[in-house]
């Protein structure tokens, strides 16, 4: 029987401070992002470098040059390739990618090239997977290419809604690739998701806000959350995910 020490908790963070909080809460792995409100884009080189220097947990920066869809141009692909090489140089443990063709299939050629460039780092294919036309065909493609794991909400906005497909993907994967539920994963449903799917890795962003420590608030922007609040993760919320699996 799986115990709580067998589970992996991955936390998506948006900057250095939220990464620090996630690590303090006991995260096993960090998906390091910028712009989580857009689904996550590639963090700055300096952020990746400092997080690698300061934190011993597994670090997987997302490689996504912009928000929006996952149909990337050749120039955007080159940006992704260069960012992967930079992550490798900084000692990241892996990267998170996702590229599709216009017909909703995995872009096999470019994805394969990025996975090859990342080696020996691990590669997670992110929730671009949830926009695929045929998730089982995409699963087999990613296994063939040597991808390490798939982050998925079961092709629904949140993992609890896609639990049936996640369970079916876990069965079809048959230990050839890791299926990691993400989106809407919280302490009050993570154990249920584990029981329903058989998955052992889980992804959550636990996004919150904290008030700015600025003492001066300009009157024209006094009500602006963007100006006077910052992204935050409560370490206790990370611990709660682990405790819920006990």
Helix-strand blueprint:
Blueprint (H helix, E strand, L loop, with lengths): L7 E6 L2 H9 L4 E4 L12 H10 L3 E4 L12 H17 L3 E4 L10 H11 L3 E4 L9 H11 L3 E4 L10 H11 L4 E4 L8 H8 L3 E4 L3 E4 L13 H4 E4 L2 H10 L2
Helix pairs in contact: 2-3, 3-4
Protein architecture, described:
With 246 residues, this protein is an alpha/beta fold. The strands form three sheets. The protein has a four-stranded parallel β-sheet, covered by helices on one side. A four-stranded parallel β-sheet has the order 4-5-6-7, covered by helices on one side. The chain has a single domain, classed as Alpha-Beta Barrel (TIM Barrel), CATH 3.20.20.380. It is globular and about 55 Å long. The protein has nine helices and ten strands. Helix content is 37%, strand content 17%.
Major sheet attributes = 4 strands, parallel
In total, how many beta strands? 10
- Strand neighbour order, sheet with most strands: 3-2-1-8
Tell me the fraction of residues in β-strands, as a range: 15-25%
Rg estimate, integer Å: 18 Å
Give the distance, in angstroms, between the N- and C-terminal Cα atoms. Answer: 12 Å
């Amino acid at each position: 029987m799986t115990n709580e020490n067998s589970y992996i908790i991955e936390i998506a963070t948006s900057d250095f401070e939220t990464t620090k909080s996630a690590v303090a809460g006991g995260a096993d792995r960090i998906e390091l992002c910028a712009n989580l409100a857009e689904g996550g884009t590639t963090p700055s080189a300096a952020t990746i470098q400092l997080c690698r220097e300061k934190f011993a947990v597994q670090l997987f920066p997302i490689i996504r040059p912009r928000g929006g869809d996952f149909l990337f141009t050749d120039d955007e692909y080159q940006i992704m390739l260069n960012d992967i090489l930079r992550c490798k140089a900084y000692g990241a443990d892996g990267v998170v990618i996702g590229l599709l063709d216009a017909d909703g299939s995995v872009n096999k050629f470019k994805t394969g090239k990025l996975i090859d460039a990342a080696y020996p780092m691990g590669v997670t294919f992110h929730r671009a997977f949830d926009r695929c036309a045929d998730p089982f065909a995409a699963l087999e493609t990613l296994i063939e290419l040597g991808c390490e794991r798939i982050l998925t909400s079961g092709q629904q906005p949140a993992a609890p809604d896609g639990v049936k497909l996640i369970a079916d993907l876990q069965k079809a994967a048959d230990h050839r690739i890791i299926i990691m539920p993400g989106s809407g994963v919280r302490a009050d449903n993570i154990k249920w998701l584990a029981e329903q799917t058989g998955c052992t890795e889980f992804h959550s962003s636990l996004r919150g806000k904290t008030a700015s420590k600025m003492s001066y608030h300009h009157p024209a922007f006094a009500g602006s959350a963007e100006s006077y609040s910052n992204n935050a993760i409560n370490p206790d919320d990370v611990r709660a995910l682990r405790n819920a699996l006990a």
